[in-house]
Amino acid sequence: MDKAKHMSSKAASWRELISGRNAAYSLVLFGATILHAVNVYITITILPSVVRDIGGLDYYAWNTTLFVVASILGAALATKLLHWAGPQRAYLAAAFIFGLGTLICALAPSMMILLAGRFVQGLGGGFLYTLTYALIRIVFAERLWARAIGLEAAMWGIATLAGPAIGGMFAELDAWRAAFWLLLVITVVFAVIALVILPTQHESEADNIGIAWLQLILLTAATLVLSWASILEDVGSIAVGIAAALILTIMLFLVEARARNRLLPSGALSFTTKLGALYAAAALLSIGVQPEIYVPYFIQMLHGQSPFIAGYLAALMSIGWTTGSLISAGWSNPAARRSIILAPMLMALGLAAAALFMPIHGQGDWTVLAPACLAFGVVGLGLGLGWPHLYTHILEAAPAKEQDLAVGAIVTVQLFAWSLGAAAAGMTANFAGITHPGGIEGASMAARWLFWLFALAPLLGLLAARRGVQA
Hints:
The protein is mostly helical. The chain has 17 helices and no strands. It is globular and about 55 Å long.
């Protein structure tokens, strides 16, 4: 690592990140994040319209679950892809896979075909998302890492403006398929930019890292079993599904602890280590935001808003994330450590407030809806304040020879937590009555259960965060 990467973080500036050669790198790296994030918010916004057209409300949460499960596979394989193909060809391969999935979604005649497309999309998205994190460490000086992660979060902010607008517009025009066609065009545009800007070669440590196939199989199986259980109605069958997912997860941890080829760096599975506590905090905070996938449905059903407005209000959580990341990205210790502890506290507070206001059947009453929206923003703000520094603290705590593995593991843990959280959200919503009795009563009960239950995740994350910054 060169001298520049050891310079004080006080020397870092936003101007350095977006000028000269760094500007070109920022364009292509954060363009991948925009593509991934715009897709997330377009899909969230148009899903109610998709369900009305081709059915499949019981599989509503699977659109997120399968996308994230496939993204985990992409994340776990991205470092190898980067080594085998180099930055340019790796990016182009990821964009091709993502574009293929988008094409399948645009043509889908049924929910099952749409879910297949979402899986392929997720695989490509996982590659793109992880390549962004991996190349941040490679192309930028270390003092710029936190700011780069903050800028990466800002791209989610751009997506929260573009995604709901695009999705809401096409939903109101009853032309949801056109949203996927537009995504395909955006994919081609960023692939062309990558072809021009990214280098073709890169020296990587990944040639000494094998692929943890058994762990990936167990991880995928655990997530899919829990997702399957989430659409069941019989309590006994749900219990069996949860138990099977738990057994698979335990097997995953046991295999990972003894495996030669690992998903996580050394010490990441032990809560008693700094690294393990930080990964646990990242996972729990990622789980805490998963009720977001149902927010557009709740806002439309309980508060009488259009798909366009509902999409934007649901995006307040990500806008808060962007704001928090930009605010805290330039902080150094001890403020950085405090932000990691503050994050779960704000998230738990926001989720509790949402549990109080969102279930109320307001039908357009903004005295009820506005506090719920403010609560979403607080949840995102908390996550944004802590996330850039969780990333840098994890890399600092990881063994020096396992930095590549640590980068991929950050995304893998995040996406695994998202997939489990999405499956748990679907299970909670279905169990609480979103489909039976359904309607306003079912939506209200589901909202109450979801937000109260998921507030527990950041509370547990607070314990992990305190352990991680103090170890």
